[in-house]
Structures are given as C-alpha cells and as structure tokens.
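Spend some time on this chain, tokens included, and walk me through the fold:

. . .
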Amino acid sequence: MTVYHFTGIKGSGMSSLAQILFDSGEQVQGSDVETYYFTEQPLRDRNITILPFNADNIQKGMTVIAGNAFPDEHPEIVRAKELGVEVIRYHKFLGDYIKNYTSIAITGAHGKTSTTGLMSHVIGGFMPTSFLIGDGTGSGEENASYFVMEACEYRRHFLAYHPDYAVMTNIDFDHPDYYKDVNDVYSAFQKLALQVKKAIIACGDDEHLQKIQANVPVVYYGLGANNDFAARNVEKTTDGTTFEVYVRNEYYDKFTIPLYGDHAILNSLAVISLCHYEGIPADVIQERLSTYSGVKRRFTETKIGNNVLVDDYAHHPTEINATIQSARQKYPDRQIVAIFQPHTFSRTQAFLQQFADSLKKADAIYLCEIFSSAREKQGELTISDLANLIEGSNILQLENIEILKKHTNAVFLFMGAGDVHKYQDAFENVLKNGEETA
C-alpha cells in the first residue's frame, strides 16, 4: 500500500483531502511549518503524522501530494523527483479522484465554504456523501455516491476539475494579485462551465452568471422572481429565516433555515435546486437544513457574559457586508463592533474604499495590521491608509485589546482570513479574567 505524503498538509484543501484519504483506509502523513493552524486539528484527531518540512521525509514508494503554495524547488519536491517518487499537485489529484463519484463542485467568489458545508450536510442525509470543505474539514464515506467539494478559482486551479455539477454562487473581482479585473475572473468561470457534465446551478441574481454559456442545462436560483428556483415571502426573525420556493413560478415548498442574511437564503436555494434536480425529497431537504450547524470560521459564535464574539472569515467587502447583515438580523438590539484584519496588501490596495464603505455599516470599527500571506510579504500601504477613510475608527494592537471592554452587551465581529483569531483569543482572556475577579 502506498503512503500518501502531503507537502503542506495544513493547507485548508490539503488538510481536507488528507482526512478523506485517511477515512477511506489509505496511509497518510504530511509535513508543514510548526505554527498552529485550525486546519490541523482534524488531522491530530485522527492521529495523522505531521512532520516539520524536511527532504528526508520523502521515501521511495510514496506518492507525494504537493500543496499549490509550494514551488517545484521545495526541498521535499526536489527529493521526491531525485528518488523517482510521483509528485501530484493537489488540484490535479483531486480532479482525478472525483471521477469515482457523482461530483458537485461548488465555486464562486463568495459563499463557497458555507454552501459546500450545507450541500454536503443535506445530501449526506439522503445518500453516503464524501466532502471536502475549504475550512479544513473533509470526510471520506465508504460506499459514497456523492462527492461535494469546494472549488477555488484562484490561479484557475478549478480548471483541473470536470465535475458532474457545478454550483456557481457569484462572480466578483478578488485575488487582485492574479486576476486583472472581473472580466478575467468571468473568463475562468466560463471555461469551467464548459467542463461540467450534467448541469450548472447558478445564482441568477448575479449579472455575470446570467451570461454563462454551457453545453449542459443552466438552472438559475435567486431572490428575483424570474429565476427557475425563486425564494418568495421571506420572513426574517432572530431565530432564522423562512421562505417559500417557487420552481418556474409554481409553488414547491416552504423551508426554514437556522441562518441569517440574504446570502444564507441564496446558499440554501443553491442546495434546494440541486437536490430537486437529483430527486431528493423536500422533507429530507428541510430536515437536514434545520439540523445544519455551520462550518468553521463562518459566523462562529462564542458567548462570554453578555457579549457575543463572532469569528468570521470575511476578507472581501462583499463578505463584510453579509456578515454585518447577519449580525443585524440575529441581534437587532445590540451594538455591532467590527474588528477587521485585511488579508494581503494587493487586496487591501484594490478594495480600499470598498472596505471602508462596508465597515462603516458597523457601530464601531477597529482595524488590525495587514496580514501578509506566504505569497506576499509586504506592500506599499499600511493599515493607516484604511483608517484614514473611516472616521472614528481605531487601530487595534494586541497590547491594548482591553479597549474593546468599553462596549458592553455587544456583538464583536472578528473578521479576516489571516490570524485575526489572536485578537479574539486575547479579548476572550480579558473577559474571562474579568468574570473571575468580579
């Protein structure tokens, strides 16, 4: 039996894939930096070996799955080639692997992770389903019929996939270090559309997705009445959201979700549309929707005293808008405090004014230093450039985290794709210490 060695096993997709192979009975190990990432916990729960990067990790007879962040010059990849060990890039391996299932690739500029989590949970209540979620969660079900996966558009990696279905949540300009503009992003999605085998489930409220051309049916969902699957008579409460679904203007069923914000309705519609297409009964869909508990780092709540701390991956203006809207629906009477850590200098530069505009929808705004990623260590601007566009905003340092205590009975939104959790951890410690001395 071959040993699968993951170079960069803590990467969100890599961790998920390692879990899937392990669950499926394969021998799995991997290597990465020693810094702790939340994506490694499921690996440790399975007792999967995680080693420091070292060329000596590579032995004959292995198959090396290489994370996309690591160049061919990486010592482990170099050693593998010296030994004649097969090296497969993550997205290429995944593209081959999904051919064994009815595959559902979920993509879009925003909403991929949440929709993948919801889709796998709902379909998993009908048939055995394996899934790969971009929050570092994966599961390999024996005898799985379906494979639900998050498919990222970054560097056009998703073009390695030829899925049975593609769910396209939206097209928006992001990854400015790679894409030139929104038309460049659209061209990538258009190319993927031509690789889909059965059908595309697309958000019809998105003007770019309206133009998608494909060789298979394109089924549109959305809040607009002209969609194939349309949500009507929406009721939003502090407990969740209820809406009726009309299929090509005919009443289908009424659904209730324990989720908040318009984006949650759209994500649910994507799932309902695909399930309807696959003949999954409405009562199964509703039962699974009602038991969905969410994915990591997507409006993940911690309650301490009368404060609510929310951990959220929002790192684009559109996502910040959605997170604040969710908080307003669930906690209409509370102050909303935004703590935002921009992710990458190029994204911060490209969306500087849009970040300012979206953050202003909170009641109080705190900004953390820009997080530099592995692919981009420095840039021209600083966090002060964003702060200057938001009157009354504050720059937050770990050592002055106690300033947040002046907000009581509040909802604190810790948003970002970097290590913004360290600010939340520090604030949690302040609040817990305060409780102990009170």
Q: What stands out?
A: The radius of gyration is 22 Å. The chain has a mean pLDDT of 92.
